[in-house]
Design goal:
It is built from one helix and four strands, in the order E-E-E-E-H. By secondary structure, the chain is of the alpha+beta class. Strand 2 and strand 3 form a beta hairpin.
């Protein structure tokens, strides 16, 4: 029995995947594993400096909006 399910034209909420375009997977067919993740997903690589800067910006916004 195969644990993975195959789908086509899936909605995608994972913005860091290279296949996500306008909240949809651009691949013709996608395989979803038993924990609900796309097997084909490739996460965008970011320079640590860029990542740290983006995290700090988001943290400041969150703290400002919630406290």
């Amino acid at each position: 029995m195969e644990d993975n399910l195959k789908f086509s034209q899936l909605a995608c909420e994972f913005d860091l995947c290279i296949y996500n375009e306008n909240a949809k997977c651009i691949l013709g067919q996608t395989t979803i594993n038993s924990i609900g993740m796309c097997d084909e997903c490739i996460i965008v690589s970011m320079d640590q400096t860029v990542l740290s800067s983006l995290k700090m910006k988001q943290l400041k916004k969150y703290l400002k909006d919630n406290f």
